[in-house]
Design goal:
This is DUF1802 family protein. The protein has four helices and seven strands; from the N terminus they run βαβββααβββα. Strands 1, 2, 3, 4, 5, 6 and 7 form a seven-stranded mixed beta sheet that branches. By secondary structure, it is α+β, with helices and mostly antiparallel strands.
Length: 186
């Protein structure tokens, strides 16, 4: 099977997802999206790391000697290595619950609060299972990929069969259970 859908996210967050340090994608919406609102349209997608608008000070440290990339290592090219498979979609209107899950994302508390409160209160949270290709595939940074939008359709589809889970089942299932428990409370 091949897939050509990609989700634009800061390179640092893509690294956090791709190394198993983050399991949630938090999203409000991009300027170029209909009505400025994010729609969780796809259940599987490649992570498209971007440096545009990336603000390292708005993320917490990933620790363990991790140094965030501040600029693209190969200008004009985008490394695609991580596949996200959405396990559950939540729309969280409770900031306290969202902050209770901070171990599963790397935005700072201030950044989460600002995004949560922007326009109407709430954020989409995508609980993802991340898979990785053995080596990144470099794709050309096309003009149609530019702009403040979450989703892009890649010119070429990428084979997903060569991917493997970043976290084992034993590592992933407790994470997913904890997130579902916090967000599923009535």
């Amino acid at each position: 099977m091949k897939l050509d859908i990609a989700f634009k996210e800061w390179a640092t967050i893509c690294t956090a997802l791709g190394t198993g340090r983050q399991s949630l994608i938090l999203r409000k919406g991009g300027i170029s999206e209909v009505g400025g609102a994010f729609l969780p349209e796809h259940s599987s997608f490649w992570l498209y790391p971007t440096f545009f608008h990336q603000q390292i000070q708005r993320t917490r440290s990933l620790g363990n000697g991790f140094l965030p990339l501040l600029q693209a290592p190969n200008p004009g090219w985008v490394p695609i290595q991580y596949l996200a498979e959405v396990q559950q979609i939540f729309y969280c209107k409770d900031l306290d619950r969202l902050l209770e899950l901070k171990e599963f994302y790397f935005w700072t508390t201030q950044t989460v609060e600002e995004r949560f409160n922007y326009r109407c209160q709430g954020l989409y949270l995508l609980l993802t299972r991340i898979k990785r290709l053995p080596e990144p595939i470099l794709i050309s940074e096309e003009p149609e990929y530019a702009g403040c939008k979450s989703w892009v359709t890649l010119k070429d589809k990428i084979v997903i069969e060569r991917t493997s889970n970043v976290l084992s089942d034993e590592e992933y299932h407790p994470v997913a259970a904890r997130i579902s428990e916090v967000l599923g409370r009535s």
